[in-house]
Structure formats: C-alpha cells, structure tokens
C-alpha cells in the first residue's frame, strides 16, 4: 500500500509523517484535567522528557495553561514563567528533540520558539490573539490549528452546530486561506475533540474524521484520557488508558497522522500494530 508522503520542517529537522507519529503531552500546570500529566520542577521535567523520548515520542508538547472546560486563565507572565524554562532545559539536554508550544498567545509562541520550540500548537486557531497568524508566519515554523467553539471557559455550555462536519470544514477552509496568504505552508489540522463538543459530537467527529484529510495537511487527534472516554465508561481520566488506546486505533483508521497523548509507550505500540496491519495484502491470492 502506498503512503501519502507528507513532511513538515521543524527548524531544519524533517519530520516524516508517512509513518504516524506520537506527540507527548508535558503540562507545566497545577490544574490539568489528568493529574498524571502535571509536571513541576526541572528534574521532573527532564525525567518526563527523557522517558517520552525513550518510549518513541516524536514531538514534546509543552503547555503552561490548562484548557480544560472552565479552566482559569493565567497571566501571560505566569504562562511564560512556566513554559520558557522548561523548553530551555529540554532543548539543552535533548538538542535533537522536536518541541511544540501549546499556547494561543502570540507572545508566548514567539518566546517559546526563541527558547527552542519548533512548532506552535494553538487551540484557538488565532481566534484568541489576532497577532498569532502573523507571528507564526514570521517565525516560519509549522502551525497546529485546532477547532474550538467558544473559549475554554464557555466551550461546553450547550455547544450546537448546524452540521458538525461541514461547519468545522468551513472553519478550516477559511483559516487555511488566511494562513496561506501569509506564507504559512506547514499546517496541521486538529478537529478539537472535547473543545465545544458534546459527547455525541465527539463520536460523530471520530466517525467522520477522514473528512478532514485535506491534501498536504496532516491530521492530529487528541483524545487521550478525555471525558468522551471516561464519561461514557463511567470511570475517570486516571482509569481511561484502555479506552484511549481503543480510540487511538480508530483515529488511525480514520486518517490521523499524529496522536497527542499522555502515555507515549501504549500509543507507539498502537501505531506499530496499525502500521503492520495496514501493510497486509488485501489480495487473497497472495496468501
């Protein structure tokens, strides 16, 4: 089977997405929805980064502000104080690591790239900072653009769509045009599971994830330990790893090229199984 040859350039490093990749979550926050992802202190940050890289993580996603529903906003100064030291020490100890900065603020994105990050991961697709697109264009780094209805404070207050899939597709087409006009070429799409979506919306999105496979634009899926899993299973984020792995396989089936995860090793194993499975010949005569 032929693979779609899609590469992105991260500060001179080529990331080939012909094979699916894992993005590991590194939250420098005290209030992320999954307690196991909260990291504090230089030693803990380096230990976590090393673990993720050893387990096969291709991108380390550093965030300094929780985006869970109703999460409190932190000041730009606080966000910078959390993420810049983390990115700096990871870059120093693991110079080959590809780091993304999870922020919707242009100033934080700029400082993070200057400190060693090489991808900007924006949950707001520029809607919460009108300087974000121009900043990414000037930085010349890949841009992960996520769909979110509303803001983290309001997104789960009765989200509604005329048509979920076409509404999100229209949103992406409009944003892509703006980004292309500014010369931003490496764009990754994230449909935003859990961001302004009901439980049913999330599973509709998963079922039709392949609809977002636009030419040259890799898909990122972020379902790891989210409420779409643990609420349906009547459990908790801490007990949602098995459900996460099940949905990761479905995300791959539907065309995701990057899995954004809390647990790197299980996701890497999932991708290995998927990659082997899809290479099996469909011609029965060859068996």
Plain-language structure description:
- With 287 residues, the chain is α/β, with parallel strands linked by helices.
- It has a single domain (7-277), classed as Dihydropteroate synthase-like (TIM Barrel, Alpha-Beta Barrel).
- 38% of the residues lie in helices and 15% in strands.
- The chain is built from nine helices and ten strands.
- The chain has helices at residues 42-54, 76-93, 106-115, 132-139, 164-181, 199-207, 227-230, 241-253, 264-278; strands at residues 7-10, 13-16, 21-27, 59-63, 98-102, 119-122, 143-146, 187-190, 220-221, 258-261.
- The chain has an eight-stranded parallel beta sheet. Strands 1-2 form a two-stranded antiparallel ribbon.
- Helix 1 (42-54) packs across helix 2 (76-93).
- The longest helix is centred in the N-terminal third of the chain and has 18 residues, at 76-93.
- It is globular, with a radius of gyration of 18 Å.
- The two termini are 16 Å apart.
- The relative contact order is 0.13.
- The model has no long low-confidence stretch (mean pLDDT 91).
């Amino acid at each position: 089977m032929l693979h779609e040859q899609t590469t992105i350039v991260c500060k001179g490093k080529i990331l080939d997405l012909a094979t699916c990749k894992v993005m590991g979550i590194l939250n420098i926050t005290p209030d992320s929805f999954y307690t196991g992802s909260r990291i504090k202190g230089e030693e803990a940050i380096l230990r976590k980064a090393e673990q993720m890289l050893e387990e096969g993580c291709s991108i380390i996603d550093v965030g300094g502000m929780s985006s869970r529903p109703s999460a409190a906003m932190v000041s730009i100064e606080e966000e910078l104080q959390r993420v810049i030291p983390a990115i700096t020490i990871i870059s120093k100890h693991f110079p080959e690591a590809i780091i993304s900065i999870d922020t919707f603020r242009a100033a934080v994105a700029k400082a993070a790239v200057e400190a060693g990050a090489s991808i900007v991961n924006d949950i707001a697709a520029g809607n919460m900072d009108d300087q974000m697109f121009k900043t990414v264009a000037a930085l010349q780094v890949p841009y992960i653009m996520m769909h979110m209805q509303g803001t983290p404070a309001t997104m789960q207050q009765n989200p509604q769509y005329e048509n979920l899939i076409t509404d999100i597709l229209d949103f992406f087409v409009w944003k892509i045009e703006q980004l292309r006009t500014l010369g931003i070429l490496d764009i990754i799409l994230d449909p935003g599971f859990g961001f302004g979506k009901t439980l049913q919306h999330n599973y509709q999105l998963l079922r039709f994830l392949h609809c977002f496979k636009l030419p040259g634009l890799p898909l990122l899926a972020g379902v790891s330990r989210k409420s779409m899993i643990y609420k349906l299973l009547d459990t908790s984020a801490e007990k949602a790893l098995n459900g996460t792995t099940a949905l990761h396989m479905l995300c791959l089936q539907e065309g995701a090229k990057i899995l954004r995860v809390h647990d790197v090793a299980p996701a890497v194993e999932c991708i290995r199984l998927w990659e082997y499975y899809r290479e099996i010949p469909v011609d029965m005569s060859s068996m």
